[in-house]
Design brief:
single chain; mainly alpha; 57% helix; 4% strand; globular
Length: 187
């Protein structure tokens, strides 16, 4: 039986540190809005590769999980898929921050492509209750945003972030078009 390292207890950040992280996020958002979507996603992809290279703990966790899930895959495949997943998570973050600025009812088809959505649309229009479970695949965040944009009552469950200022800002971005967020803790 393998010995597992004990998780190190993370130091709680101070209020000032939380505020500084929040201000840094807001500066990043302003900078994002000076560039095109394509430029931002290219930068996000680069940052994801940097994260893969320098965030050893996350890279180790990702490769361990991929090896456990795909024991027949080569090390090269594990490396490519792991790095691409890091690129994707940074790109998703950019999408979340950029979507409210550019996606409207008049142009949503330029940014989203839904398959088999008709039945869901009619069930929502009939005010029938529905639970939708989505995978964390691609830009899964856009589903709640788009349904809220078109006036459907949509509630999403999310884990609150550790930084209360960043959490409040991101919940505001998510809820801007009518989607309501329910905290996973105590939901």
């Amino acid at each position: 039986m393998a010995f597992k390292e004990r998780k190190r207890k993370k130091r709680k950040l101070t209020r000032i540190e939380h505020l500084l992280h929040y201000l840094a996020l807001r500066v990043v958002v302003v900078l994002l809005h000076t560039r095109t979507v394509e430029e931002n996603l290219e930068l996000a992809s680069f940052l994801g590769r940097c994260l893969w290279r320098y965030y050893e703990r996350g890279r180790t966790r990702a490769t361990d999980n991929l090896r456990a899930s795909y024991p027949d895959k080569s090390d090269d495949w594990i490396e490519r898929v792991g790095m691409r997943s890091f690129e994707q998570i940074v790109m998703l973050t950019v999408d979340i921050l950029y979507t409210p600025r550019i996606v409207r009812r008049s142009n949503w088809k330029d940014y989203a492509d839904f398959k088999n959505i008709e039945r869901v649309k009619w069930m929502l229009a009939e005010k029938r209750g529905m639970i939708m479970a989505t995978a964390h695949y691609g830009n899964f965040e856009i589903i709640g945003y788009m349904l809220g944009l078109f006036g459907f009552d949509i509630y999403s469950v999310a884990r609150p972030l550790d930084n209360p200022y960043v959490n409040s800002y991101l919940y505001g971005v998510r809820e801007r078009m009518g989607q309501r967020i329910i905290d996973k803790k105590g939901a």
